[in-house]
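Extended Data, panel c. Modelled sequence:
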Amino acid sequence: GGGGGVAGRGMFLGARGQQGTKTGLIAAGMSLCGVLAAKLLIFCFVLYAVFTGETDDPELQRGYVMVQLTDELLDEREVYDEAERERQWDEVFSEAKKRAEQMSDAEVRGQWEHYRQEEELNAWQEGDPQRHRLAYNEARRTAEREGLAYDDQRRQTYRENAFEKYREMSGEELEAAIAELDAWEAEGRWADAEYVRDFLVYQHVDRALEDQRPAEGGEDEYPAPSKREWKKLHDAAVADVDAMTVEDRLARARQIEHEQELDGRRNRLASHRAERRVQHEGLPDWSEDWEKFYEEESTRAGELSEEEVEAAVADLDVWEADGKWSDAAYVRDYLIYDRIEQAADELPIDDEEEIEPQEWRALYEAAAAEVEGIPEAQRARRARQVEADEEREFEEMKAQWEEGPAPADEEMEGAVGAFLLGFAFTMFGLMDLLFMGLAVVSAFRIGSRGFSKGE
């Protein structure tokens, strides 16, 4: 706009008779600046849309999906070092680009929505956890009072509004609000008749949805209920709960929570036992046998009494705390699978699940032979060291992500160079250069000579 105005001023002076090389150069120069500024503005807009996902344009959404998918693939490769991610970016982006280009517009839209929601959730979790916890609780209670579905967009609006309110709190006010929420979650909620009623209503809805879900297929394969279906389920749940006395509601709510906690302990036992069976038999973590073992162990855990579950969980706590290092079979398996993971990292694959069964068996046998060569008395010490190294690496990675990348000057220069190079190739094709040249020449001619007769 500004560049075009000055270019127009130069052409206007030429047209009014103030011809000359000076006015021509003004017109030509400002015409060129105007074109470059417009190109840069468009390029920046495209970059902003692609990297933030804030766009309704299908092709820009596809570009956003490509960027997010690239990050996802790098995470799958367990590439967390910033310098290494930058080195592998182009190669992985090419793969992500191929995948995104094969998606239909509807699939792109679905992925775009998934990644956008994921980014929003991560932002909420990483920003200010205490205030976000307060905001989440308040928004959830408001949504439940209004009977909103889980995917209702008003939930997000309520959470954002609540966060703005809590963000204005002083440190002392925040500390008091957190203490109050802790007390409410520990026991006070059971004296909150409104909470108890809403808790039971949503439990009834969840159970109805579970009953409708096909026996085969996970939750992702079952579509969310429509607004009409949700209202029907919610109204039926409200009728059931309102027919109960206040005392019965409280007793039922406590019973449901107790059953959920007990199920969680049973699931923990089943998962641990299934994993130990998989490793004892030398199977990959993604083996289909894991599901079979888990189902078998879930059945066994389900047959335990509550007292037996509590005793088994207490034993598992002791084992995980330190007893596992006295479990020779576990220590052996732990070292074997650590060696396999190291060997798999050196293979030209993106995911360990791409390893063929024969190749996995070869990796397992090689790792087992290596571990068998370690004196049994030394294995526990080595396993402890491996776990300590993994925990240290995890904490370093966590700290790096929390602090954010701090690129060196040369890395920043490289990023700027890549930006300019991308700008040049993206915005200046052959036809762009041709029309730009015509615009500059025309501006110079009009500014320096004015309009000739008949023009």
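The radius of gyration is 32 Å. This feature is highlighted in the accompanying rendering.
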